[in-house]
Hints:
Largest sheet: 5 strands, parallel
Number of helices: 15
Strand order of the largest sheet: 2-1-3-4-5
Amino acid sequence: MTWISFFxxxxxxxxxxxxxxxxxxxxxxAEKKPVKLQPEKIVIVADExxxxxxxxxxxxxxxxxxxxxxxxxxxxxxxxxxxxxxIANSQLPTMNGIQLCTCIRNNFNVNDIPVIILSDHPSDxxxxxxxxxxxxxxxxxxxxxxxxxxxxxxxxxxYNTVIKKxxxxxxxxxxxxxxxxxxxxxxxxxxxLVVISNNMxxxxxxxxxxxxxxxxxRGHLYRKVREMTNDTPHALVRKIRLQQAARLxxxxxxxxxxxxxxCGFRNASSFARMFKQTYGKSPTDFMNQSY
Length: 291
């Protein structure tokens, strides 16, 4: 869909058709033939009363929509479907929209997906909480359809631009690896990952130990990790531990307690809480559903 046709449809303007009797070459016909793109998927997290609002119903007529009634179910769908955008109500049972947004931002696989929070009773504090959780925007539930449509299109366009950049970097990275060239930052990150891997089961691994292991200062390590991953060194270690735990649980070689210890976690309740925040389910449920 072209930009002109998108905004025309958004404003309710019919697209001008080509004259039926115009004589054109095969090449010209190919150029004029509109290309139909697959619409982007959107996950809407709302109960029935929210979903029946006019805005959300009309969105379902324009995009492939996946509707979930709570955040936990939505997180499973988000991990499986990789939607282009998530719209969540701020006031839901079990896991509300703000908690869901935090869960999305803590997961490596989906943390770049834009999230819009809608509220029945908007407040400055809730807006601050939403933006602090990583939400892309925050609106009252009665937001106009044209406002919501425009913001959705803008966020999806930004998301697709980022995805394309990552794809180009990945291709370039593979080409570099084939001739065995690495930048200084790539080599540093490789060394950081080696140290973390070698200390996977060591719950005493600190930022100071990590910095010493790669031969740089604590401050330099913090700056470089933040620059390369947008995370602190502590958060990076935690995410890698959780990824390793998820892999081991999915392989069913060890029970939850063993996986927790192997991955450097000492407290069972803390491990379960962080795992659920990242993967949307407890370690036990994750392992059982991986059969």
